[in-house]
Write a structure and sequence with these properties.
157 residues; mainly alpha; 7 helices; 3 strands
Length: 157
């Protein structure tokens, strides 16, 4: 009997392994889960990586963060964080400055405009996330969260 995933991606051949099936299933799920969020962010001319950076900087507070630390905290790795920060800075939602004690370090901070932008998105994002997973009981979500932690355990980055 064909798995649900095989039907969804219209795959005829068997998966090479259970691990392949799980990874492909996770990739498809991430794509489907993030699509409504991506659509919502697009209305504000934001990409999901830009939104992630703004959330990271909001959490960092007034001190901001060095670019390297932002990169470490990203959910989805972006190979060109500098260009991403350039776009956010051109929108005046982020500022960057050289660190006073170590001129090699560039520290980024969220601006008031950036905070207002995130504040304007918070409720819509929360509602979207709730709607996306409303069909899954809370206990199953807790189990899924633990399983995802287990899958990430031992992986670098």
């Amino acid at each position: 009997m064909a798995s649900q995933l095989k039907r969804e991606i219209k795959q005829q051949r068997p998966f090479r392994s259970l691990e392949e099936e799980v990874v492909l299933g996770m990739m498809l799920t991430v794509d489907r889960l993030t699509a409504p969020i991506t659509d919502l962010l697009r209305q504000q001319d934001l990409g999901i990586s830009q939104y992630n950076v703004l959330r990271i900087l909001r959490g960092a507070g007034n001190e901001g963060l060095p670019s390297g630390e932002i990169a470490e905290r990203m959910i989805r790795r972006d190979p060109d964080l500098t260009r991403l920060l350039d776009r956010l800075e051109s929108r005046r939602v982020v500022t960057r400055a050289r660190d006073a004690t170590d001129r090699r370090v560039v520290r980024a901070k969220i601006t008031e405009a950036g905070l207002r932008l995130l504040d304007s998105l918070d409720d819509s994002i929360d509602q979207t996330v709730q709607r996306i997973l409303a069909h899954v009981p809370k206990q199953r979500l807790r189990t899924l969260s633990k399983l995802l932690e287990e899958a990430r355990a031992g992986l670098s980055g």
